[in-house]
Design a protein that fits this description.
Elements lengths: L8 H4 L7 H11 L28 H29 L4 H31 L1 H5 L1 H26 L4 H4 L1
Length: about 160
């Protein structure tokens, strides 16, 4: 990539209306590419014809067709959405209530799935014992903590203030 020389004429003028960055962009847009792969056109040659009477090779016609297809797709999408809304018009309130009620229940559902997924994978016995096991785990922790406190208080005869 070649460096574009800076135009020093604009620097010499004190009231220059174009700052140096505009000169840089202007010179980059005017510069021609270094290599040209296309064969040079003869000045006497007539303009290139686009395949007979077919207009699909003309870039302007293609652009117009693309824009037309985009507008047709947009109109079809709006028409389908309008039809779906008219079809579900009577069910709109129940659907909205279902969505509103499902939002707070999502956390409960995730907790239940998290709790039951492991026992259900392990088998019938673990599934049956899951709820008693869930109850007994914290209960046993509480009993063990209470027994430890009793042991420290009565057997070792240490007051609670010294423990903490």
């Amino acid at each position: 990539m070649k460096l574009v020389p800076f135009n020093s004429d604009s620097k010499s003028e004190p009231n220059s209306s174009s700052p140096p960055w505009q000169d840089m962009f202007r010179s980059a847009s005017i510069r021609k590419p270094e290599t040209n792969d296309a064969p040079p056109l003869k000045p006497d040659a007539p303009p290139q014809q686009y395949g007979g009477n077919s207009l699909s090779n003309d870039p302007q016609v293609r652009l117009a067709l693309y824009i037309t297809m985009a507008h047709a797709g947009l109109a079809f999408t709006i028409f389908v959405l309008y039809g779906v809304c008219k079809l579900l018009e009577d069910f709109l309130r129940p659907i909205l209530w279902a969505v509103l009620c499902s939002i707070p229940l999502r956390g409960i559902q995730q907790t239940l799935v998290e709790f039951w997924s492991e026992p259900l994978k392990l088998g019938l016995t673990e599934t049956v014992l899951a709820v008693p096991g869930a109850i007994m785990g914290p209960l046993m922790t509480t009993v063990v903590t209470a027994l430890k406190d009793l042991y420290v208080e009565f057997v070792l005869e240490l007051p609670k203030e010294k423990i903490n």
